[in-house]
Amino acid sequence: MTRLLSKINSPADLAALDLSGLQQLAREIRQELVETVAVTGGHLAPNLGVVELTLALHKVFQTPRDKIIWDVGHQCYVHKLLTGRRTVFHTLRQYGGISGFPCPRESEHDAFGTGHSSTSISAALGMALARDLKGENYGVVAVIGDGAMTGGMAFEALNHAGHKRTNLIVVLNDNEMSIAPNVGGLSRYLTRLRTDPMYSRGKEELEHLLKRIPAIGPRVARAVERLKDSLKYLVVPGMFFEELGFIYLGPIDGHNIQAMINVFQQARSTQGPVLVHVLTRKGRGYPPAEENPDQFHGVGPFDIQTGRVIKKEGEPPSYTEVFGRTLVELGRQDERIVAITAAMPAGTGLSHFARAFPERFFDVGIAEQHAVTLAAGLAAGGLKPVVAIYSTFLQRAYDQVLHDVCLQNLPVTFALDRGGLVGEDGATHHGVFDLTYLRSIPGMVVMAPADENELRHMLKTALEHPGPVALRYPRSAGTGCPVDGEPVSLPVGRAQVLREGNDITLLALGSMVSPALEAAGVLARQGISAAVINARFVKPLDEEIITRYALRTRRIITIEEHNLEGGFGSAVLELLADRGLRNIQITRLGIPGQFILHGRRSLLLARCGLTVDGLVDTVLNNLKGRRTSVRVNLGAGTGGK
Ligand SMILES: Cc1ncc(C[n+]2csc(CCOP(=O)(O)OP(=O)(O)O)c2C)c(N)n1
Ligand SMILES: CC(=O)[C@@H](O)[C@H](O)COP(=O)(O)O
Ligand SMILES: [Mg+2]
């Protein structure tokens, strides 16, 4: 039998399908999702949960005329399959292939680029207001999960949208999960809407009840009004959203296509902002993902039969894992250590700490700004907070780092995971700006370990330091180096000379130390004597060692897994310029000032010249007096073309 999916080249092709056709298509889409993501890796469970929701949206709204904005965007695979990217779906998240997130450069059906959470309602409201001001007429829909709804921006936007009263639809996709189980009062409220029969009895019934209460005399009338209000709070589902100015529709079974088509048609013809509360199951239709939705939230290649993730044999533990276990060790020695995550206990390695010290662990939801200021408060209260956070997500809490932590010199440790290129998630998630935005803050200490052993020492160093510290490490396995017994504190601002040399100095940071050492070995066999320095600190820099080697070799190559503008190499340039050192040839190797797309991390690093071969080439060119070009073709791709 010809698969229906093979005939879907654009959402217009859905018009030919009746309900049973759509249900058949939903089954085929699930199979396609599982078979593709088992090879490419990706966000499987969120997409399995929104198959019917996406079909219903595309049945009612006509993209690209109507705009659908996917919050976070990790659940956009079904949308991509329906909007002309079916034949390139196998290239998902691969270098040169289609992105795992909505990407307007990739398709006119992707109305807005996302990747970071809780932006959809703001963007949708902006588009709706632009439409109104230009006198245009189209639908705008934001699809946001219950996890993303815990982010402050979502509330800021709801507040504003309720005030503006323009036509806008917010679809709340409630599966009771963030990556981990969702947390907080909002989550409890949504659970009540889901489960309490009082809440789901329906507005008509309540209105009928209220109309039957007679209002006699002004005082009695006022009392009756108050009673009506309190009854409304008790009984009307979605009262919270209604109070903000939204019409609340729901809760709706998010796996019932017809019910959703009906409710979206109703929402579409309603004046003003509407919130449609849709209930879905994360991982729906693939038992291993239904049973472990957090593991299948974002998953690597896996075996379809067993659901087991395909692991590389003998790979050393990741930096994340070493961080998580070391924090537990240190937490046992010092009760003042507390840990904070913004909805990523497993991804940051904090699950270990959460299990060991549940009362000293805080999952704040997708609320990075709150996480940082909460840490400031905990530090002001005499504790030693560790905020474990992906480099890319700390970007949104910059003012909290500066104003709430650093300005008061509070001892908060920022454990910046995914510092560097993350690989398949691509441009939205690469953590390549943290050195720039952190090293400019007075009082901040910024460091990067060369290996997992040094990570342990740096964590200890950070926790003993009396002010704010950030340590960044990559999304990668460790180097497999031997690990010392007890973590010890390192001298702040001191680099480590790993190899002596006279012809050139390789000044490497973090993940780049190991390839630099290897490159020096290759160069030695060609008669070139390269010194290798593990910088350890970006702030404060080891001015003494850097100056000494600059003067000795007169040639320096700085190497960092970070954007070149404002990064480690820039800090070294500033130092040498400030010291008035002239006639020193400095080459900065790092990530060129472009947004880097998705692909395997090792491949992206190679394209940036950040491998042993790349470093050797740069040194040889340098010695021949040639400059290395660091502009690479990584930012211009349109995906799949
Ligand atoms: C600012 C920010 N913080 C954290 C994340 C990591 N993250 C991606 S998806 C997700 C959970 C989203 O939950 P929800 O919105 O309910 O979507 P679901 O996966 O359940 O469909 C988190 C924490 C992110 N993308 N952006
Ligand atoms: C969509 C999102 O932001 C997360 O799911 C992210 O993709 C997780 O990345 P890791 O796989 O590096 O934990
Ligand atoms: Mg969710």
TrEMBL record:
GO molecular function: 1-deoxy-D-xylulose-5-phosphate synthase activity; magnesium ion binding; thiamine pyrophosphate binding
EC number: 2.2.1.7
SMART domains attached to this UniProt entry: Transket_pyr
Stretches assigned to the Transketolase-like pyrimidine-binding domain: 317-481
Reactions accelerated catalytically: D-glyceraldehyde 3-phosphate + pyruvate + H(+) = 1-deoxy-D-xylulose 5-phosphate + CO2
One of the Pfam families matching this protein, by short name: DXP_synthase_N
Keyword presence, Cell membrane: no
Top-level division of the source organism's lineage: Bacteria
Keyword annotations from UniProtKB, A to Z: Isoprene biosynthesis, Magnesium, Metal-binding, Thiamine biosynthesis, Thiamine pyrophosphate, Transferase
Cofactor: Mg(2+); thiamine diphosphate
InterPro entries, A to Z: Dxylulose-5-P_synthase, THDP-binding, Transketo_C/PFOR_II, Transketolase-like_Pyr-bd, Transketolase_BS, Transketolase_C, Transketolase_CS
One example of a Gene Ontology biological process annotation: terpenoid biosynthetic process
Keyword Transcription regulation: no
TM helices/strands, residue ranges: none
Biological role stated in the UniProt entry: Catalyzes the acyloin condensation reaction between C atoms 2 and 3 of pyruvate and glyceraldehyde 3-phosphate to yield 1-deoxy-D-xylulose-5-phosphate (DXP).
Family, similarity comment: Belongs to the transketolase family. DXPS subfamily.
Subunit structure comment from the entry: Homodimer.
Protein name (database record): 1-deoxy-D-xylulose-5-phosphate synthase
Source species of the chain: Desulfofundulus thermobenzoicus
